[in-house]
Amino acid sequence: MTRRQQGTLIQWDAAKGYGFIAPEGGGPKLFVHAKAFGLRPRRPFVGERLSYEAGQDAQGKPRAQAVRSLEPRPPAEPPPAVQRQARRQEALRGSSLWLIPGFALLVLVVHLGFGLPHWLWGGYLAMSLATFIVYAGDKRAARLQQWRVSEATLHALALACGWPGALLAQQLLRHKSAKTPFRRLFWLSVMLNVLGFVLIFTPLGSKLLHAYVL
Predict the structure, then answer these.
(1) Is 124 within 8 Å of 164 (Cβ atoms)?
(2) Residue 30 in contact with residue 21, Cβ under 8 Å?
(3) Euclidean distance between CA atoms 196 and 120, whole angstroms
């Protein structure tokens, strides 16, 4: 049986499909062709540790044969359909950030048309900042395996005018952005907060109150 040897790929020409291996025990570099690698999920790369059998080509020149990688196997890629779905979900999450300037525009229009309390802008800004900080602290705690902030607290902060900061934290910090049950409750808190704003600070609320009470 041919004794296998080990070495490192020090040169590789992807266009021509060949390169050279530096034997682990020293000695001249050894030619290796792409065919010697057989079927494999990734291309050879410079610096890759390999095992091989020393052989010769038709002209008697030394070359590596039956080459195998000694590097850890890369994780298997998900199916294309799963990758497309993940890209769509990522695009949807990114597009949700437009809700923040959209809501700010709504608040501005209501302020110009009907007037708003001076504390309202400051309230949303303060709660959003506080919520962002809490999200950042919870992400750090998760990484260090320390005490975590409860999801009920995060939802309460979002409902109490802190949802813009929560949305920013989910996108920028990549925290609580993939868990479906949490996301559903989060968006419910956003809808309840926006609905509450509309009912309290626009004529719609007084009209509904008048219609149902009177």
Answers:
(1) yes
(2) yes
(3) 13
Q: What count of other Cβ atoms lies within 10 Å of the Cβ of residue 98?
A: 9
Strands 49-56 and 62-69: antiparallel
pLDDT tens digits in sequence order for the chain, 214 residues long: 568 899 999 999 888 889 999 999 888 899 999 999 988 878 899 999 999 998 888 888 899 999 999 988 765 666 676 666 666 666 666 678 889 999 999 999 998 988 888 899 899 999 999 999 999 999 888 878 788 899 999 999 999 999 999 999 998 888 887 778 899 999 999 999 999 999 888 887 667 666 665 5
**Which amino acid makes up residue 39?**
L
- Specify whether the CB–CB gap between 74 and 42 falls below 8 A: yes
Cβ atoms of residues 52 and 5 within 8 Å = yes
Instruction: Measure Cα distances from 204 to 103, 110, 196, 200 in Å.
Output: 17, 11, 11, 8
> Residues in the chain, how many?
214
- Backbone dihedral region of 26: left (phi > 0), alpha (psi from -120 to 50 degrees) or beta? left
Whole-model pTM above 0.90? no
